[in-house]
Amino acid sequence: MKRLCDYLDSDLVKIELKNGISYLGVPIDVTYADESENGEDQITIEDPNIRMRLHTVTKSNIKKIVEIG
């Protein structure tokens, strides 16, 4: 898997979590372990259909990230 910050240039990504849930969104921010509350790298994506609906996912919960656009 690429570094989370490498996805910030993507227009749209699909994040598949280890628990089977998937999120589709536009990557808008990466928080690094030393700045996050839980000590892990996190990526925040915005739902393309609902403005300002954000999903923040920790790196350890991510199964894979697929760039769609």
Automatic annotation (TrEMBL):
Name assigned to this protein: Uncharacterized protein
Naturally occurring in which organism (per UniProt): Hornefia butyriciproducens
